[in-house]
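Data card: per-record layout.
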Amino acid sequence: MQKPDHKDAELLLRLYEIRREERLRQARHWLLHEYQPVPWEQMKATYAKGSPEDASLRMVTSYWDMVGALVNNGVLHAGLLFETTGEDIQVWNKVRGWVEGIRKENRPTYLRNLELLATRHLEWRKRHAASLPHEQAGVPLRGASGSDA
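The structure for this 149-residue chain is written out next.
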């Protein structure tokens, strides 16, 4: 895989700016800290009714599905994204239990990019856990020696 370039960095920073938008920040907080996964039938009856929670769910999942599309199609360097976040995995773990239900009913490709992104990210973590660029260069992480000095 080629090294990330300045365009990758610019795109990654733009995606971060989008994540900081207030409504998306609220939606992310709700999904990651308040929402509890439920089976598809309960999900459909409870959330799929145009509620504020439904809007939050759609906002966060569509954001990460779009990020997945960028990475999965080679527009954004996967390793650069994977080094800087884990939220894609957290979001996928929150929704994976009911995604198959919506795929069977009417959207066969629903959140496929998010699913592939999270799967690839987990595989990347296994391969790179001890070999990130700063570790290969012998640069200790801040505080790795027990102090931040």
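Known properties of this structure: The radius of gyration is 17 Å. Confidence is low (pLDDT under 50) at residues 141-149.

See the next section for split statistics.
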